[in-house]
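Hi R.,

Here are the chain sequences for the assembly we discussed:
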Amino acid sequence: MLSIFNTLTREKEKFSSIEPGKVRMYVCGMTVYDYCHLGHARVLVTFDVVARWLRTSGFDVTYVRNITDIDDKIIRRAQENGETVRSLTDRFIAAMHEDCAALGVQSPEHEPRATEFVPQMQSMISRLEARGLAYLAANRDVCFSVRKFDGYGRLSGKSLDDLRAGERVDVASDKQDPLDFVLWKHAREDEPEEVKWPSSWGAGRPGWHIECSAMSSELLGAHFDIHGGGQDLQFPHHENEIAQSEGANGCTFVNYWMHNGFVRVDNEKMSKSLGNFFTIRDVLKRFDAEVLRFFIIRAHYRSPLNYSDTHLEDARNALDRLYTALRNVPAAAVAADFEEPHGRRFAAAMDDDFNTAEAVAVLFDLAGEVNRTRSPALASQLRALGGIVGLLQRDPASYLQSAAGGDECGLSSSEIEARIACRAQAKKARDFGEADRIRAELLAAGIVLEDGAQGTVWRRA
RNA sequence: GGCGCGAUGGCAGAGUGGUUAUGCAGCGGCCUGCAAAGCCGUGUACAUCGGUUCGAUUCCGGUUCGCGCCUCCA
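And here is the predicted structure of the full complex:
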């Protein structure tokens, strides 16, 4: 029985879906004006694991992860680059898909782009207006009237009177209340035509929050099971989504809210504004993508995750151990067995609010068992359980021989095999001096040799 | 200022009212021509001060420190 920590109640709750056997899930995805960084990697992997586990548990999952392709920063960046918004966003969407593929993140059922749902957003804004929750401000922006929505602040645990809008930033004076947020932004003269949509309030473009309300409602219905995203979206973005969706649709919006923790650098949040971020592709130049995925999965999704090269190296060494067990004992591609003791523990861990740290620990216990027993059945189970969280599906020998990005040793595998053959000759002639010399030479090039009963195998250091 | 989260062995990171997390690194041993891999063994870890309890790292309260949200951010 799956339990999920629900941000709304700050408790783990038994999960039960609205429609039996089906789960509808929405996750806030990327604003596409730059490459994805490790914080994005964490959301992508975290909710990929959630979707995978729900499917493994037998649910028919409809997973929607949106793409924000219209926004102040996108417009600014496009102008700086001297390109259209569309060409900028297309480019970074393609880059994001490359990153996802590398990380083994499966495609969601729907990946809606905000610009393709403007009519739905307008209709939602109209309904909010009709219900007296939205107003046209003096500057021609349409704003949501936060004080008119009962329960605003419930998700983030904030009370309206405690929130000090403007404490850190000047507030636009056209709003009736500093906390009101924009639903529809009136068009500015200096903005390109491609970001202006006609509307009954005049030409303009949607505010950020409305897209998620409109797209989730369009693709999943007014009331769905799980809504996820990074912790930083809890307030105000998700709070505003609730206000808009429940305000417009008049029913409960979401049953379970999930928020993943931040990636940190030097104990500080990794973020664009702080400038302390590493892009996924930067990291993949030096580390295998599966190592990065393993690094993320190894911690619980709600805990902070500190990034450093040392920690990635640690993760790589750990993942090597798993693959080494699979290299040494043949594993068949079978389905996971949840009756077998490790399978039971693994499932129990995943059912406990997606405790991947515990599930990974089971993988290591199983690897030890595989090494001791040399049991192909257990090795197959290891491969199958790993597969559930998107790990351990590659050929073990080639994983262990692969060098990520810049760590190339400069020797081709045929050159390495040739050196191994020379060494075998030397060993046969009991010329251990020469054999050791070859081994040392390869080690200097980052290649480790392992002599076994069936000959010598190699792997990267 | 308001609200919230956290503090676990050298490092990373789960978890639990009383009994081994797990991984990396280290040390000793087995195996090996020697190694590597693997196996076996090995560390009085639970910020601090009180309280509850037969017993607390685990529950409650205070303190200290760290982090986050209150502004765009995954």
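The mean pLDDT of chain A is 94. The longest helix of chain A spans residues 309-328.

Let me know if anything looks off.

Best,
T.
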